[in-house]
Amino acid sequence: MLFPPPIVIVLGASLTPGTAWAPYVDPPELWAKSAMPVPIGLGSAPPPGLTQADALIAMDLASRAWMLPACSGARLRIVGAESVVGDGANDGRNDVIVHTTAWPTSLEPGALAHTVIYLGSGGIVEADVHVNAVEYTFSIGASPGAWDLRSVLTHEFGHVLGIGHSSVARATMNAGLPPGIAARSLEPDDVAAVCTLYPADGTEAVVACDRGGPACPSGTRCIGHGCESASEQGTLGAACEAGTGLTRRCDGAGDQAECVTLTSGAEVCAFPCGGDAGEDCGAGLACAATAYAGDSECLP
Q1: Model-level pTM greater than 0.85?
Q2: CA atoms within 13 A of residue 24's CA, in its CB half-sphere
Q3: How confident is the model at residue 21, as a pLDDT?
Q4: Burial class (CB in 10 A: 0-12, 13-18, 19+), 22
Q5: Strands 258-261 and 286-289
Q6: Exposure of 5 in the CB half-sphere (CA atoms within 13 A)
């Protein structure tokens, strides 16, 4: 599935109409520091088969992905459910809008989701994420025939921040969405993007759940520095994804994670550590040696 680039609408007369949107390496506009944390609401009913709570938790965890890197000064805030009139265009609010009866003709035909960004004289002033539940089915987690809502929103929230598509194949901001839950986690190119556009200056609110940041949503636990379901395969500290022929069994934890076999025979998703890095494993994890000489991992 290919993600289209965002639609950009110029509102301010001080900007040249038709300004081309660019990748993050040369962006025309961003959110002002004073606009953060950028509030994002759920402006419609959730996708069929999911509850409002499901959708809000997916939004919460997708937003945290962009805020967790220590170098990131980006801040998003999920504000709950809102009532949207029409398509929410240029109403001064940022919303996730799920379409279930008709996909707007102004959006990319057949797109899984599409973000619309509004530019004013001070940069980005509004961004709405449209989700196509007319042609596609959404789930929470990997499910045959469905798309993981959190993965889709993680990509789209990158666009909300003004980040363009990446040419790196495994990056979350690549235009192609991989199956399953791989797009939930930021890869090095995604981190470079958000930290280049919104470098941390030490004034940002704490995000990590193990360092005084917001508590994890219901049904998830604080593991490492973020929040995950304890039972969801392929995520940090949980069992590796099961199945034959899988080359990556920890997609939900990112490409730097690996499947590690414990002395008990259980296989879990972990990150390499070593030396003083053990202090950075985060909640529920400890840096421990494995059966491989010189190899240590952040293990539950």
Answers
A1: yes
A2: 24
A3: 31
A4: middle
A5: unpaired
A6: 13
Residue 250, CA distances (Å) to 98, 159, 210 in order = 29, 25, 22
pLDDT for 8 equals 79
Q: Are 174 and 158 in contact (CB under 8 A)?
A: no
Query: Residue ranges of the chain with pLDDT lower than 50?
Result: 13-26, 277-278
Place of tokens 């940069």: 123
Four-point Cα dihedral 115, 199, 171, 241, nearest 10: -100
Q: With residue 154 as reference, give the H or E element that holds it.
A: helix 149-160
Nearest alpha-carbon partner for 60 in 74, 44, 39:
39
β-pair type (147-148, 221-223):
unpaired
- Separation in Å, CA 91 to CA 69, 88, 128: 31, 6, 10
93 in Cβ contact with 214 (< 8 Å): no
In this structure, what DSSP letter does residue 36 have? Answer: P
31 φ, ψ (degrees, to nearest 5): -75, 140
